[in-house]
Write a structure and sequence with these properties.
The protein has 13 helices and 8 strands. The protein has about 325 residues and is an alpha/beta fold. Helix 7 packs antiparallel against helix 9 and helix 8 (about 190-195) packs across helix 9.
């Protein structure tokens, strides 16, 4: 009797796994059919890199996404700014529609971006707009192209010292499950089902385009996101060696987290995180002799979604006449 129940249980589990796998991969076939036009790709070192360029103007607004972020993250802001400026958002290597790269370094990020801008004939000067980990990945690009930058806007960005400033408990609290386990869940459709029922971020409603995009395309974000996450210490160390942007106009937009830190369950750790975050956000002002800090009073980390006009206004202020 026990053996029979065990066999039925195993059969049911295997059947559910098979159904989940089939469901997930049929979904992928369908969404892969919405592949962008070939005109939205450039080739860099034999790799295809996807971008979205919109608008025309005498300067280019470059959007640099955070950890695992894709070009769609910027679509609302890009649409507004493209009325007056040239704008470009792109998928970093291994993210969304861009091919992966074996090399993970600030040099590769820099070479990729430089080649992208050249191949797409983006006019100088540039205004670089980075969110979250997008304050780490473009630092070498900023250093090497300082003369071509009219301004920088960092939106609640990561700081190279944030990991070493954090307690072990805080670091453990934000550590994701093993990549192999998450990959398994991704392959059998569990993550798609999860994000169909709960939002990726509560910063915006579940039916907001951002949450819908994550639900649909997480399978195209996962590997690149995990690769960046697994190399965050290496990239932060490289970024820490670039601590002087000269006199490039720099605006630090810092989230005020009026509703607390999303997902934080331990109030003590939340307090520690905010204390470190606020201190390091202020420290970012030392990157340039021409810097300022403004606060996103209504936003958590996703200022890009909660207060896009604040960002647009600051970019317009920095843009040349």
């Amino acid at each position: 009797m026990i053996l029979k129940v065990l066999k039925i249980t195993v059969f049911a589990i295997v059947t559910l796994l098979a159904i989940g796998f089939i469901f997930e991969h049929i979904s992928r076939i369908y969404f892969d059919s919405h592949h962008p036009d070939d005109s939205e790709f450039v080739t860099i070192d034999g790799r295809k890199m996807h971008y979205k360029k919109e608008g025309q103007g005498n300067c280019t607004i470059i959007f640099e996404s955070g950890l695992g972020g894709d070009y769609l993250h910027w679509q609302e802001i890009q649409k507004k700014l493209s009325k007056n400026y040239t704008t470009i958002a792109y998928d970093k290597a291994g993210i969304m529609w861009s091919d992966p790269s074996e090399e993970i370094s600030l040099k590769r990020y820099t070479d990729d971006l430089k080649s992208l801008l050249e191949q797409t004939n983006c006019p100088k000067p540039y205004i670089l707009v980075g969110h979250s980990f997008g304050g780490i990945t473009p630092r070498l690009f900023i250093k090497e192209n300082a003369k071509d930058l009219a301004g920088i806007v960092f939106i609640d960005v990561s700081h190279p010292k944030q990991l070493e400033k954090s307690s072990t408990a805080l670091k453990n609290s934000v550590q994701p499950p093993p990549r192999s386990f998450l990959s398994f869940l991704n392959e059998i459709g569990v993550i798609r089902i999860l994000y169909s029922n709960v939002p990726f971020t509560t910063a915006v409603p579940k039916e907001h385009w951002f949450n819908k995009n994550v639900k649909i395309y997480f399978y195209r974000i996962f590997d690149g996101m995990m690769t960046e996450l697994e190399n965050d210490k290496k990239l932060m160390k490289e970024a820490s060696e670039i601590a002087d942007f000269g006199s490039i106009p720099l605006t630090i937009i810092t989230a005020k987290y009026p509703n607390g830190v999303e997902g934080a369950k331990d109030k003590k750790l939340e307090k520690e995180y905010l204390s470190i975050h606020n201190s390091l956000q202020k420290d970012l002002l030392h990157l340039s002799s021409n810097s300022k800090q403004i606060f996103a009073q209504k936003s958590g980390h996703y200022v890009t979604l909660q207060e896009p006009n604040l960002i647009c206004n600051e970019i317009k202020r920095l843009a040349p006449e």
